[in-house]
Amino acid sequence: MKTQARFFSFTQADPHRPQGSGTPGGAASRLLALALALLLAGAQADPFGVAPTLIELRGSQRTASISITNPSAQLVKYEVSASAWSQPSGDDAFQPTSDLVLTPPVFSLKPGGSQIVRVGLKVPATPGSPERAYRVYIAQLATPQAQASTPTDQVTASVRVLFKIALPMFVLPETPAPKVAWEVARAGQTTTLTLNNTGNSYVRYGGLKLMQGDKLIGSKIIMYALAGQHHTLTFNTPVEPGKVTVTYEVNQEPHTETLVVQ
Q1: pTM of the model
Q2: 147-154 long-range CB contacts below 8 Å, 24 or more apart?
């Protein structure tokens, strides 16, 4: 069954930034963001549908396919690009890469039209090679009509991309085996949660929450711990010495970790 996903671009805030109950105006900001999202969802059509939303290549696989659909009533132009993905200092880092071949890199779709984009590896995985991580970006570009309707002093490179999504892509080892250890630390009015992945494959966490008793220290909708690296979240809420719990989902299965804060 073909699936579609809805995507909206919010340049005012980062939807992947960790959220903590100590963030100034946190509750009011979340309510405002929710209201804005609902308003936008009802006021404009989906920019495009895409499937799958996660790409994995295993064994001798060298190519993957992405289906992109234009559900709007207008001609839409798209651009596909990619970057290498790592977490060298505990945060996501992206670098230009020539490892992938994207075909076609630029195309237009009529209303209701669809396009298959091929993602190919220039250098295939070999037995014993480490996991490789990438992000594949799909952007909806402004058409000449959209540019013409924008005041001249606002037509800049920053508005050329109307919507953009990033699909995680992984070239997996022969036997994926993540191995993650959790660490929590306090520093003044902030709290850090670090995931150390010493295994050979990534882990995707969903609905992560860090709690101390009934107090929410921070949360993250989606996060990844890449193979052989670590990912650190910083929350603007202090934690006291003692026990904390981390709840999250992996492959839609709930998990709970109990950690001790020194």
Answers
A1: 0.77
A2: none
